[in-house]
TrEMBL record, chain A:
Keywords: Cell cycle, Cell division. It holds the Pfam family MinE. Coiled coil: none annotated. This is Cell division topological specificity factor. The keyword Cell cycle applies. The gene is minE. SUPFAM superfamilies: Cell division protein MinE topological specificity domain. NCBIfam families: minE.
UniProtKB/TrEMBL annotation, chain B:
It comes from the Bacteria. GO terms for cellular component: cytoplasmic side of plasma membrane; cytosol. Belongs to the ParA family. MinD subfamily. NCBIfam families: minD_bact. GO terms for biological process: division septum assembly; negative regulation of cell division. This is Septum site-determining protein MinD. Residues 6-218 form the CobQ/CobB/MinD/ParA nucleotide binding domain. PANTHER family: SEPTUM SITE-DETERMINING PROTEIN MIND HOMOLOG, CHLOROPLASTIC, SEPTUM SITE-DETERMINING PROTEIN MIND HOMOLOG, CHLOROPLASTIC-RELATED. ATPase required for the correct placement of the division site. Cell division inhibitors MinC and MinD act in concert to form an inhibitor capable of blocking formation of the polar Z ring septums. Rapidly oscillates between the poles of the cell to destabilize FtsZ filaments that have formed before they mature into polar Z rings. Keywords: ATP-binding, Cell cycle, Cell division, Nucleotide-binding, Septation.
Amino acid sequence: MFEFFNKFFNKQSSKDIAKERLKLVIIHDRANVSPELLELIKNEVLKAIQKYIVIDDKLLEIQITRTPSEQKGEFVPALIANIPIKSVKKTEILNNEADELK
Amino acid sequence: MGEVYVITSGKGGVGKTTTTANVGTYLSVLGKRVLLIDADIGLRNLDVVMGLENRIVFDIVDVVEGRCKPKQALIKDKRFDGLYLLPAAQSKDKTAVSPEQMKALCEQLKDDFDFILIDCPAGIEQGFKNAIAGAQKAIVVTTPEVSAVRDADRIIGLLEAYELHNPKLIINRIRFDMVKRGDMMDIDDILEILSIELLGIIPDDEKIIISTNKGEPVVMDEKSRAGQEYRNIARRILGENIPIVSEEESLGFLGRIKKFLGLNNS
């Protein structure tokens, strides 16, 4: 009944919050990746991508999640990056294509 | 030749000692020869939970330091045939025993028992390494709280690293009223996160405290729900196929009516 009311009012139950928090913290524990390391990776990725694409670096998100692996039932940590593109640097691509044609 | 189990959790206070005492006691009631080893050196408690604190002469450190033979340090529980306790030392600390000594001790005693249950200290340091050194199987105890589940996950990883594969999980102190309200993680939530095999669920039961007060294992209390589940766990360890059910299912129709009317407080 409580479940019903919670759903009705679209309120997240405390156990769902617990589960979400746990999943995230365990992913970090398992992969032994600290937020600082993630920040370093983010900056490096940013640098590499910015050579070719103009991205919104304020909205860039990088996190570790769990994805199902090839083996059934197994979950493995995965690095997921969400990179909003503002525009593609046309000149770079044209230059590259020109290089390839040579 | 006996099987050596370690009962571990990472986090303290989730019920390792209670689990060791009760599962061990009931295995002996079922006719097995059982040795309980308290590996929590410096903070021994299995003796008081078992009600055997007044009978300690030698302890595990006396054994490894050669002051007595292993068998001289074993306390025979007079209430249960075939049940013995090897107490931890209280005056020493975790470094008083090494993993090699623990392993040798288990090897030496294994032939005399069907089961050796090792009560592991909280934490992941020396005491943990000692406790798991002699074990072939592991039981991980957790409660439905974020801190306990997180530590359980860490322990499962460490057990794997020490080649103790496929540990079994006991979820302790579950409150079905809170689960129903959505304020406590349920069994499936925890299994999804830890992805290990479930050995049993123990409902939160004040009879645990009452029986610990008296130094009598709760498995001997016929009316206790927690006791019932500990009995089931012991039977599952012996290979019996007893389904794991949550409270609602286990109560049955009459039970549910009683509960609805507030008659069932056990």
